[in-house]
Protein backbone atom coordinates (compact mmCIF):
# COMPACT_ATOMS: atom_id res chain seq x y z
CA UNK A 1 0.00 0.00 0.00
CA UNK A 2 1.43 3.33 -1.02
CA UNK A 3 1.98 5.99 1.58
CA UNK A 4 -0.71 8.70 1.46
CA UNK A 5 -1.23 11.77 3.65
CA UNK A 6 -3.66 11.65 6.56
CA UNK A 7 -6.95 13.58 6.53
CA UNK A 8 -5.15 16.35 8.39
CA UNK A 9 -1.97 16.50 6.30
CA UNK A 10 -0.28 19.29 8.25
CA UNK A 11 0.63 18.03 11.71
CA UNK A 12 3.52 18.78 14.10
CA UNK A 13 5.83 15.94 15.05
CA UNK A 14 4.88 16.65 18.66
CA UNK A 15 1.61 14.85 17.88
CA UNK A 16 3.59 11.58 17.79
CA UNK A 17 6.03 12.48 20.58
CA UNK A 18 5.28 9.25 22.45
CA UNK A 19 6.50 7.24 19.44
CA UNK A 20 10.07 8.55 19.40
CA UNK A 21 12.64 7.56 18.20
CA UNK A 22 11.37 7.91 14.65
CA UNK A 23 12.81 6.89 11.32
CA UNK A 24 11.74 9.67 8.95
CA UNK A 25 11.19 9.24 5.21
CA UNK A 26 11.00 12.48 3.19
CA UNK A 27 9.38 12.25 -0.23
CA UNK A 28 7.75 14.35 -2.95
CA UNK A 29 3.97 14.12 -3.18
CA UNK A 30 1.65 15.66 -5.74
CA UNK A 31 2.13 18.00 -8.66
CA UNK A 32 3.88 20.38 -8.19
CA UNK A 33 6.04 18.36 -5.79
CA UNK A 34 5.59 19.00 -2.11
CA UNK A 35 7.56 17.34 0.67
CA UNK A 36 5.72 14.96 2.99
CA UNK A 37 7.04 12.76 5.76
CA UNK A 38 6.27 9.17 6.63
CA UNK A 39 7.48 8.51 10.16
CA UNK A 40 8.10 5.02 11.47
CA UNK A 41 8.23 4.24 15.18
CA UNK A 42 11.20 1.99 15.93
CA UNK A 43 9.33 0.67 18.96
CA UNK A 44 6.24 -0.85 17.31
CA UNK A 45 6.79 -0.40 13.57
CA UNK A 46 3.73 1.81 13.13
CA UNK A 47 3.83 4.47 10.41
CA UNK A 48 2.03 7.76 9.88
CA UNK A 49 2.20 10.07 6.89
CA UNK A 50 1.72 13.82 7.05
CA UNK A 51 3.42 17.12 6.30
CA UNK A 52 5.43 18.49 9.20
CA UNK A 53 4.89 22.28 9.19
CA UNK A 54 8.23 23.05 10.84
CA UNK A 55 10.07 21.28 7.99
CA UNK A 56 8.40 23.19 5.17
CA UNK A 57 10.75 25.70 3.56
CA UNK A 58 13.57 24.77 5.91
CA UNK A 59 16.81 22.86 5.67
CA UNK A 60 16.87 20.63 8.75
CA UNK A 61 19.81 18.88 10.37
CA UNK A 62 18.99 16.33 13.06
CA UNK A 63 21.39 16.05 16.02
CA UNK A 64 22.26 13.17 18.38
CA UNK A 65 20.68 15.05 21.31
CA UNK A 66 17.30 15.18 19.55
CA UNK A 67 17.15 18.89 18.75
CA UNK A 68 17.06 19.88 15.08
CA UNK A 69 18.89 22.77 13.46
CA UNK A 70 16.31 24.43 11.18
CA UNK A 71 17.43 27.04 8.63
CA UNK A 72 14.86 29.02 6.67
CA UNK A 73 15.61 28.47 2.98
CA UNK A 74 14.89 32.13 2.08
CA UNK A 75 15.76 34.32 5.07
CA UNK A 76 18.43 31.95 6.47
CA UNK A 77 17.06 32.55 9.96
CA UNK A 78 18.03 29.69 12.27
CA UNK A 79 16.62 27.95 15.30
CA UNK A 80 17.06 24.83 17.37
CA UNK A 81 13.73 23.04 17.16
CA UNK A 82 12.48 20.45 19.65
CA UNK A 83 10.30 18.14 17.50
CA UNK A 84 8.72 16.53 20.59
CA UNK A 85 7.37 19.79 22.03
CA UNK A 86 7.51 22.24 19.12
CA UNK A 87 9.62 24.67 21.19
CA UNK A 88 12.33 26.67 19.39
CA UNK A 89 15.48 28.48 20.45
CA UNK A 90 16.43 31.36 18.14
CA UNK A 91 19.97 31.37 16.75
CA UNK A 92 21.84 33.94 14.66
CA UNK A 93 20.93 33.94 10.98
CA UNK A 94 23.40 32.40 8.55
CA UNK A 95 24.98 34.39 5.73
CA UNK A 96 24.69 31.50 3.27
CA UNK A 97 22.73 28.29 2.81
CA UNK A 98 23.76 25.10 4.55
CA UNK A 99 26.19 22.91 2.57
CA UNK A 100 24.54 20.09 0.66
CA UNK A 101 26.20 17.37 2.73
CA UNK A 102 26.91 18.13 6.38
CA UNK A 103 26.17 17.17 9.98
CA UNK A 104 25.29 19.09 13.12
CA UNK A 105 26.34 18.57 16.74
CA UNK A 106 25.77 20.36 20.04
CA UNK A 107 28.75 20.48 22.38
CA UNK A 108 26.66 20.24 25.55
CA UNK A 109 23.18 20.65 26.96
CA UNK A 110 21.49 23.77 25.56
CA UNK A 111 21.11 25.06 29.12
CA UNK A 112 24.91 25.32 29.39
CA UNK A 113 26.17 28.88 28.86
CA UNK A 114 29.05 27.49 26.80
CA UNK A 115 26.98 25.29 24.47
CA UNK A 116 28.02 25.51 20.83
CA UNK A 117 26.21 24.44 17.68
CA UNK A 118 28.72 22.96 15.24
CA UNK A 119 28.17 22.14 11.55
CA UNK A 120 30.84 20.28 9.63
CA UNK A 121 30.77 19.48 5.94
CA UNK A 122 31.83 16.38 4.02
CA UNK A 123 34.29 17.41 1.34
CA UNK A 124 35.38 20.82 2.63
CA UNK A 125 37.92 21.50 5.41
CA UNK A 126 35.55 23.87 7.16
CA UNK A 127 33.67 24.15 10.45
CA UNK A 128 30.72 26.45 11.08
CA UNK A 129 29.66 27.22 14.64
CA UNK A 130 27.78 29.62 16.89
CA UNK A 131 26.89 29.97 20.57
CA UNK A 132 23.40 28.99 21.70
CA UNK A 133 23.37 31.65 24.37
CA UNK A 134 24.77 35.15 24.29
CA UNK A 135 24.09 36.16 20.71
CA UNK A 136 26.91 36.62 18.24
CA UNK A 137 27.16 35.40 14.67
CA UNK A 138 28.06 32.15 12.95
CA UNK A 139 31.82 31.75 12.64
CA UNK A 140 33.59 29.83 9.88
CA UNK A 141 36.88 28.12 10.68
CA UNK A 142 39.07 26.09 8.36
CA UNK A 143 41.16 23.14 9.52
CA UNK A 144 43.98 20.92 8.29
CA UNK A 145 44.12 17.23 9.26
CA UNK A 146 46.65 16.24 6.63
CA UNK A 147 46.49 14.51 3.26
CA UNK A 148 46.37 11.02 1.81
CA UNK A 149 47.50 9.38 -1.41
CA UNK A 150 45.25 7.43 -3.75
CA UNK A 151 46.55 3.83 -3.99
CA UNK A 152 47.59 2.68 -7.44
CA UNK A 153 47.84 6.15 -9.00
CA UNK A 154 51.43 7.11 -9.63
CA UNK A 155 52.45 10.75 -9.12
CA UNK A 156 48.95 11.78 -8.17
CA UNK A 157 48.77 14.86 -6.00
CA UNK A 158 47.89 14.03 -2.36
CA UNK A 159 44.26 14.63 -1.45
CA UNK A 160 43.15 16.62 1.57
CA UNK A 161 41.58 14.72 4.45
CA UNK A 162 38.19 15.88 5.67
CA UNK A 163 36.46 15.12 8.94
CA UNK A 164 33.84 12.45 8.31
CA UNK A 165 32.91 11.40 11.83
CA UNK A 166 32.62 13.47 14.98
CA UNK A 167 31.03 13.24 18.44
CA UNK A 168 30.54 15.67 21.32
CA UNK A 169 31.25 14.44 24.85
CA UNK A 170 31.06 16.67 27.92
CA UNK A 171 31.71 19.88 26.07
CA UNK A 172 34.47 18.57 23.79
CA UNK A 173 34.38 17.52 20.15
CA UNK A 174 36.21 14.38 19.07
CA UNK A 175 36.76 13.48 15.45
CA UNK A 176 37.91 10.21 13.97
CA UNK A 177 40.05 9.46 10.94
CA UNK A 178 42.78 6.84 11.17
CA UNK A 179 43.14 7.67 14.84
CA UNK A 180 41.10 9.59 17.37
CA UNK A 181 41.99 13.26 17.33
CA UNK A 182 44.10 14.69 20.19
CA UNK A 183 45.75 11.35 21.00
CA UNK A 184 46.63 8.02 19.45
CA UNK A 185 43.82 5.47 19.59
CA UNK A 186 44.20 2.93 16.83
CA UNK A 187 41.13 1.83 14.88
CA UNK A 188 39.80 -1.59 15.96
CA UNK A 189 40.38 -4.24 13.31
CA UNK A 190 38.47 -7.34 12.27
CA UNK A 191 40.66 -10.41 11.76
CA UNK A 192 39.55 -12.82 9.03
CA UNK A 193 40.84 -14.64 5.95
CA UNK A 194 39.62 -11.98 3.52
CA UNK A 195 42.44 -9.94 1.94
CA UNK A 196 40.60 -6.73 2.72
CA UNK A 197 37.93 -5.62 5.19
CA UNK A 198 35.74 -2.55 4.67
CA UNK A 199 34.88 -0.89 7.98
CA UNK A 200 32.06 1.58 8.62
CA UNK A 201 32.79 3.54 11.79
CA UNK A 202 30.41 5.64 13.91
CA UNK A 203 31.38 7.84 16.86
CA UNK A 204 28.79 8.69 19.48
CA UNK A 205 28.27 9.84 23.03
CA UNK A 206 26.29 7.75 25.49
CA UNK A 207 25.81 8.50 29.20
CA UNK A 208 28.93 10.67 29.21
CA UNK A 209 31.14 8.06 27.52
CA UNK A 210 32.61 8.06 24.01
CA UNK A 211 31.74 5.01 21.93
CA UNK A 212 32.76 3.71 18.53
CA UNK A 213 30.54 1.31 16.60
CA UNK A 214 32.16 -0.61 13.73
CA UNK A 215 30.47 -2.58 10.98
CA UNK A 216 32.91 -4.98 9.32
CA UNK A 217 32.46 -6.09 5.70
CA UNK A 218 35.02 -8.66 4.43
CA UNK A 219 36.02 -8.08 0.82
CA UNK A 220 35.82 -4.89 -1.22
CA UNK A 221 32.08 -4.30 -1.09
CA UNK A 222 29.16 -3.92 1.30
CA UNK A 223 27.48 -7.15 0.22
CA UNK A 224 28.18 -9.17 3.36
CA UNK A 225 28.21 -7.79 6.90
CA UNK A 226 30.30 -10.07 9.09
CA UNK A 227 30.20 -8.37 12.47
CA UNK A 228 28.87 -5.35 14.37
CA UNK A 229 30.98 -4.35 17.37
CA UNK A 230 30.90 -1.56 19.95
CA UNK A 231 33.90 -0.07 21.75
CA UNK A 232 34.11 2.34 24.69
CA UNK A 233 37.01 4.77 24.92
CA UNK A 234 39.22 4.28 27.99
CA UNK A 235 40.61 7.79 28.30
CA UNK A 236 43.14 6.73 30.95
CA UNK A 237 44.73 4.19 28.59
CA UNK A 238 43.77 5.87 25.30
CA UNK A 239 42.35 2.56 24.10
CA UNK A 240 39.12 1.31 22.56
CA UNK A 241 37.67 -1.42 24.82
CA UNK A 242 35.23 -3.80 23.17
CA UNK A 243 31.88 -4.09 24.97
CA UNK A 244 29.08 -6.59 24.43
CA UNK A 245 26.68 -5.15 26.99
CA UNK A 246 25.66 -1.49 26.69
CA UNK A 247 22.95 -1.79 29.33
CA UNK A 248 19.43 -0.44 28.97
CA UNK A 249 20.09 1.63 25.87
CA UNK A 250 20.34 1.35 22.10
CA UNK A 251 22.55 2.94 19.48
CA UNK A 252 20.87 4.43 16.40
CA UNK A 253 22.97 4.70 13.23
CA UNK A 254 22.04 6.34 9.94
CA UNK A 255 23.37 8.05 6.81
CA UNK A 256 26.10 10.71 6.91
CA UNK A 257 27.69 9.06 9.96
CA UNK A 258 24.73 9.94 12.17
CA UNK A 259 24.93 8.10 15.50
CA UNK A 260 22.97 8.59 18.71
CA UNK A 261 22.22 6.83 21.98
CA UNK A 262 18.71 6.37 23.36
CA UNK A 263 17.24 4.74 26.50
CA UNK A 264 15.73 1.38 25.53
CA UNK A 265 12.98 0.24 27.90
CA UNK A 266 11.62 3.77 28.37
CA UNK A 267 10.97 4.00 24.62
CA UNK A 268 9.86 0.43 23.95
CA UNK A 269 13.10 -0.67 22.28
CA UNK A 270 15.11 -3.86 22.66
CA UNK A 271 17.97 -3.01 25.01
CA UNK A 272 21.57 -3.59 24.08
CA UNK A 273 20.96 -3.31 20.35
CA UNK A 274 22.27 -1.31 17.40
CA UNK A 275 19.55 -0.01 15.05
CA UNK A 276 21.16 0.55 11.65
CA UNK A 277 19.26 2.39 8.91
CA UNK A 278 21.39 2.98 5.85
CA UNK A 279 20.80 1.57 2.38
CA UNK A 280 23.82 2.04 0.14
CA UNK A 281 21.89 1.38 -3.07
CA UNK A 282 18.74 3.43 -2.31
CA UNK A 283 16.55 0.45 -3.24
CA UNK A 284 15.23 -0.50 0.20
CA UNK A 285 13.64 1.18 3.23
CA UNK A 286 14.66 -1.63 5.57
CA UNK A 287 16.64 -1.20 8.77
CA UNK A 288 18.65 -3.71 10.78
CA UNK A 289 18.60 -4.51 14.50
CA UNK A 290 21.79 -6.07 15.87
CA UNK A 291 21.83 -7.51 19.39
CA UNK A 292 25.39 -6.94 20.62
CA UNK A 293 25.12 -9.38 23.53
CA UNK A 294 23.34 -12.25 21.80
CA UNK A 295 24.91 -11.73 18.39
CA UNK A 296 21.51 -11.98 16.66
CA UNK A 297 20.16 -9.88 13.79
CA UNK A 298 16.70 -8.79 12.70
CA UNK A 299 15.47 -7.01 9.60
CA UNK A 300 12.55 -4.58 9.80
CA UNK A 301 10.81 -2.34 7.28
CA UNK A 302 7.74 -0.09 6.90
CA UNK A 303 4.50 -2.00 6.37
CA UNK A 304 3.53 0.36 3.56
CA UNK A 305 5.23 1.40 0.35
CA UNK A 306 7.23 4.62 0.46
CA UNK A 307 7.47 6.75 -2.71
CA UNK A 308 10.79 7.89 -4.14
CA UNK A 309 12.65 9.65 -1.34
CA UNK A 310 14.05 13.18 -1.50
CA UNK A 311 16.77 12.19 0.97
CA UNK A 312 17.88 9.02 2.72
CA UNK A 313 15.84 8.01 5.80
CA UNK A 314 17.07 9.69 8.97
CA UNK A 315 16.59 9.30 12.72
CA UNK A 316 14.85 11.74 15.04
CA UNK A 317 15.67 10.70 18.59
CA UNK A 318 14.15 11.64 21.95
CA UNK A 319 15.41 15.00 23.13
CA UNK A 320 18.00 14.81 25.91
CA UNK A 321 16.83 16.90 28.87
Describe how the helices and strands are arranged.
Blueprint: E1 22-29, E2 34-41, E3 47-50, E4 58-62, E5 68-72, E6 78-81, E7 88-91, E8 102-106, E9 116-121, E10 126-131, E11 139-142, E12 147-148, E13 159-160, E14 166-169, E15 172-175, E16 197-206, E17 209-218, E18 227-234, E19 239-243, E20 249-253, E21 259-263, E22 273-276, E23 287-291, E24 297-300, E25 314-316
Parallel strand pairs: 20-22
Antiparallel strand pairs: 1-2, 1-25, 2-3, 4-5, 5-6, 6-7, 8-9, 9-10, 10-11, 12-13, 14-15, 16-17, 17-18, 18-19, 20-21, 22-23, 23-24
Walkthrough of the structure:
With 321 residues, this protein is mainly beta. The chain has one domain: Neuraminidase. It has strands at 22-29, 34-41, 47-50, 58-62, 68-72, 78-81, 88-91, 102-106, 116-121, 126-131, 139-142, 147-148, 159-160, 166-169, 172-175, 197-206, 209-218, 227-234, 239-243, 249-253, 259-263, 273-276, 287-291, 297-300, 314-316. The protein has a five-stranded mixed beta sheet with strand order 21-20-22-23-24, with no helix packed on it. Strands 3-2-1-25 form a four-stranded antiparallel beta sheet, with no helix packed on it. A four-stranded antiparallel beta sheet has the order 4-5-6-7, with no helix packed on it. A hairpin with an 8-residue loop joins strand 17 and strand 18. The chain is globular. The protein starts with 21 loop residues before the first strand and ends in a 5-residue tail after the last strand. 31% of the residues are buried.
Amino acid sequence: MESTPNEDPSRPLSSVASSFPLLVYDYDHGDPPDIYQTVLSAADGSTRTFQVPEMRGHACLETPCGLVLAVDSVSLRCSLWNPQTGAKIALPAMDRALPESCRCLLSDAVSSPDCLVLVYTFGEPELLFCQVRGGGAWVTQSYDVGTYEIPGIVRAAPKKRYIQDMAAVRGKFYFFELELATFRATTPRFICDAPQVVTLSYLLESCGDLFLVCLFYPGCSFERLEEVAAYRMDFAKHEWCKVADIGDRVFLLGPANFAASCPATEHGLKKGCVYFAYDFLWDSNEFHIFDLKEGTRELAAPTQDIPVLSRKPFWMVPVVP
